[in-house]
Design goal:
The complex is a heterodimer. By secondary structure, chain A is an alpha/beta fold. Helices cover 39% and strands 18% of the residues of chain A. In chain A, strand 5 and strand 6 form a beta hairpin. Chain B is 0% helix and 40% strand. Classes of the chains: A alpha/beta, B mainly beta. Chain B: It comes from Halohasta litorea.
Amino acid sequence: MERVAIIGASMTQFGQRDSWIRELLAEAGQACLDDAGVEGSEVDHLYVSNMASGEFEGQTGIANAVAHDLNAIPAYTARIDQTSSSGGAGVYSAWQSVASGASDLTMLVGGEKMTHRTTAEATDVIASLTHPAEYKHGVTLPSFAGLTARRYLHVHDAPRESLAKVAVKNHKNGVDNPHAQFQKEVDLETVMESPIIADPLRLYDFCPITDGSAALMLCPESVAKEYTDDYVTIAGIGGATDTHVVHERADPTVMGGVVDSGEDAYEMAGLGPDDIDMAELHDMFTILEFLQSEGLGFFEQGEGWKAVEEGVTDRDGELPINTSGGLKSKGHPLGASGVAQIYEVYQQLMGTAGPRQVEADTGLACNVGGFGNCVITTILEASQ
Amino acid sequence: MSDENQPAMEAARYPDGSILYPAHPVGPDGNEPVGTVDLSEYTATLITWTSSTATPPGVRQPNHLGIVEFDVEGEPVRAIGQLTTDEVEIGETVEAIYAEELREPGAGIREPESQAWDGYRFQPVE
């Protein structure tokens, strides 16, 4: 199986945008075509990561719409929906299309338009992924986070402030990301005194509702040099699921999909947690950064909070996590997030991350759908 | 606790002895259920809880929620549900209390006829 290269990448400004979903996807798509130096008509496969354009906006058939808007006809196209991990699932499909030999040039565009909806409406669209036994009780993704955070703090005797420090760290990183929704620091006191959303979690423990899009261009590594001198490769990728009913998991503080997808990605790459130089984790809620950093083997179970307290995951720490600002500060346009994670790792490995730049040859992205229901872990390496 | 005029809080029992709530077409061993258990006949232990203030359309605000664990003759069975109060602690014993309507059907995105809207809340045992 031939290794797959990423030869171009883009992302739009994340935040509250006037553009609708087609415009957002076309904006990132065209920027990616320009970055890779290819025409839309050259693309063999076009994947569009999007969770709910039909529910949010009343626009279905989005994959074909984007193909037309990017002049990518007659490319094969498909919409990839895996809730919050639609972007990561799109990366998986795009990688698969090239690695299998089915496509010589694959484009992935992920995006979501959400901010025209009220918080209650957007929360309900996302919560509709839950099992009927959960939905009828009014269970939402933020409430899963509150339930898990309380259990984590209780079992591991972790201080509440450790969660707040994830928000402080990621907001600090977001200051240097011109695409981030929030480019401002927050202090510990602000986080700890913000309104309760899902006790013990507060407003600043949650990512915002966001519009935005991101895109990648992939090809076999053997022909990457025909497009560009510098590129990154997908060294390993894994996708896994956990129970649909969240309370059935043996340990509420462990996401099996993170563990399983990570193991698959490490095995394919022939690497382990110690080989990773930087990571983008799905911090939709601050507690998720602990669960993923432990599930991926960066830290022992129950020790992830200590790494944040000790500055290990700071930009200048031993293992920088969420140099982009994460979903927390950058924003979380559902279908775009997993693609934008790869965009950040790509920038870091290419050495083009500007003031966010860290020393890295190998990076990892973990994109979580639902509350750990579906997870994609991807490991990238800089080209030799 | 259980009342014969109320629907059961029905969990499914599988051939390997495991019990799941809600019931699934197949259990952890890949086999179909062989029986049911009415969890409302048992008390449970509160594993964790939250009080959610950002609730979707048709849901009470705040919405107190908990994950509980029943002990059915030595077999642990977990469930999620609304709590009657946020005056609770992890490890507390709770009982299941029937509610005819947990949230307003049709107020949210899900088709009202696609699922049931009644169920059991949990309240601390006095």
